[in-house]
């Protein structure tokens, strides 16, 4: 299963992609990572869903990453006496701690921590931006607001607070139970919702204890004020543009996307661009031209992965959405401008042996016109260091750890393979060349770069780079 692109595709599973047959079709259409959204997937079904993906993985003999996306806290209104009410622009509307059913003048907000955190001038956004309020006065257990954008307001609608740092952790009791279920079932990545501060990520990483990598979903403006700290503690980032677009001016979201993408690339951490990428394909077999341009922009920026949500989870054309996204990425990566952009954005290597080796390998790729960098890796850090510089060659990650191979399926330009560790330097070079032929990245007479750490099996010990010639013996043994 050789992909002809380096950008990865994340597909969300749901009612439209619920059967093993459909999930198999999505994989063959181009999905590298499957996202399981715990906002909609019952916890008891999680092991069954993961086993379906693992069965596809075994049949295809290609590692597949599984991303379990935690729901996070959900802020919602209480109930109205008549199920809903109409509120008009300019009127006063009160949010309070009184559990009495609401009306056109007030409503119960069952989140005392929110009422205590609101301040005059803060915005309150309801129902994904359909209604907007501004806080004018606060008191014990209540906040008086002015209606900026009115309309019909109804039971249990979601509440967003773009200016308010809410004193609640990103993890609820449900999230902790979902996290443990995901780790026990073999998830490779955990996505954390409602991240506001680096401590939110540190808590999840402590609970995960290395059993999965942890990705921060940047979906709240509050996270942007401490973005560098959040990126530092996270294993990966997701640009959750849908929620960002609700809680901040839409015109600011593209700049935030670029800031997060470039920051993650600088740190060598996978970054996923998500939400509404091919939204029209929920109901149509082809996307709009603007959507094609949107996906292409994320690829040009060097994102590790682009993600489909409702398009693959509940849309009418999930396979077509995956194949369309794959073709867009393939076409962008053929463009000379793509490589000019990646080169211009490349970060200087860190003053470490691993980065020096990665920089040398990158230079060799350019000087010798090679197609593959064979990276022997235990923890995956060698492959991620190589992918960080976005070389014009595939990083073939050879690892004895299946979980490492699966995690690397998220990373740009990596082609993970599970194999026994090398026994010595000659074995390292010989088997690297053999795998390059077997996976159709090299032919007899070609050269490949081999990167490893000596002694073998030592995580983070990248200190060796070598050029290997592909011979007939390698081809015969492939």
From TrEMBL:
PANTHER family the UniProt entry points to: PYRUVATE KINASE
Pyruvate kinase barrel domain span: 5-322
Top-level enzyme category: transferase
Listed pathway(s): Carbohydrate degradation; glycolysis; pyruvate from D-glyceraldehyde 3-phosphate: step 5/5
A Pfam family per the record: PK
Residue intervals of the Pyruvate kinase C-terminal domain: 355-467
Record gene name: pykA
Species: Methylobacterium oxalidis
Catalyzed reactions: pyruvate + ATP = phosphoenolpyruvate + ADP + H(+)
Family classification: Belongs to the pyruvate kinase family.
GO molecular function: ATP binding; kinase activity; magnesium ion binding; potassium ion binding; pyruvate kinase activity
The protein's name in its UniProt record: Pyruvate kinase
Keywords: ATP-binding, Glycolysis, Kinase, Magnesium, Metal-binding, Nucleotide-binding, Pyruvate, Transferase
Cofactor: K(+)
SUPFAM superfamilies to which the protein is assigned, alphabetical: Phosphoenolpyruvate/pyruvate domain (SSF51621), PK beta-barrel domain-like (SSF50800), PK C-terminal domain-like (SSF52935)
EC number: 2.7.1.40
């Amino acid at each position: 299963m050789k992909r002809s692109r380096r950008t990865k595709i994340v597909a969300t599973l749901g009612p439209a992609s619920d059967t093993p047959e459909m999930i198999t079709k999505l994989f063959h259409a181009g999905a590298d990572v499957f996202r399981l959204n715990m906002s909609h997937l019952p916890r008891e079904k999680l092991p069954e869903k993961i086993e379906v993906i693992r069965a596809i993985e075994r049949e295809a003999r290609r590692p597949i990453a599984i991303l379990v996306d935690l729901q996070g806290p959900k802020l919602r209104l209480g109930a109205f006496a008549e199920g809903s009410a109409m509120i008009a622009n300019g009127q006063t509307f009160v949010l309070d701690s009184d559990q009495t059913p609401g009306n056109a003048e007030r409503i119960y907000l069952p989140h005392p921590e929110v009422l205590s955190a609101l301040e005059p001038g803060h915005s309150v956004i309801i129902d994904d931006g359909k209604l907007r309020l501004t806080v004018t006065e606060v008191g014990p257990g209540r906040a008086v607001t002015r209606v900026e954008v009115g309309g019909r307001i109804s039971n249990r609608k979601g509440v967003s607070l773009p200016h308010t740092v809410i004193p609640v952790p990103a993890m609820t009791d449900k999230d902790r139970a979902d996290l443990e279920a995901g780790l026990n079932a073999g998830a490779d990545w955990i996505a954390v919702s409602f991240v506001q501060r680096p401590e939110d990520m540190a808590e999840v990483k402590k609970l995960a204890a290395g059993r999965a990598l942890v990705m921060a979903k940047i979906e709240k403006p509050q996270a942007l004020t401490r973005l560098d700290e959040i990126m530092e503690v996270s294993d990966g980032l997701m640009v959750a543009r849908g929620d960002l677009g609700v809680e901040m001016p839409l015109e600011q979201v593209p700049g935030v996307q670029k800031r997060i993408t470039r920051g993650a690339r600088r740190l060598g951490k996978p970054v996923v661009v998500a939400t509404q990428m091919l939204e029209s394909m929920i109901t149509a077999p082809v996307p709009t031209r603007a959507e094609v341009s949107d996906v292409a922009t994320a690829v040009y920026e060097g994102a590790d992965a682009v993600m489909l949500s409702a398009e693959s989870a509940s849309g009418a054309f999930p396979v077509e959405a995956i194949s369309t996204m794959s073709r867009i990425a393939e076409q962008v990566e053929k463009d000379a401008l793509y490589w000019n952009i990646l080169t211009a954005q490349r970060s200087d290597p860190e003053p470490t042996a691993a980065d020096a080796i990665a920089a040398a390998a990158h230079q060799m790729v350019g000087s010798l016109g090679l197609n593959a960098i064979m990276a022997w890796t235990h923890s995956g850090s060698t492959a991620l260091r190589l992918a960080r510089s976005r070389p014009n060659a595939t990083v073939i990650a050879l690892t004895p750890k299946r979980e490492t191979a699966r995690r690397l399926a998220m990373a740009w330009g990596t082609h993970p393979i599970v194999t026994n560790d090398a026994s010595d330097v000659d074995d390292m070079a010989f088997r690297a060349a053999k795998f390059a032929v077997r996976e159709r990245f090299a032919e007899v007479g070609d050269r490949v770069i081999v990167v490893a750490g000596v002694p073998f099996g030592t995580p983070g010990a990248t200190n060796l780079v070598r050029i290997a010639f592909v011979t007939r013996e390698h081809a015969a043994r492939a």
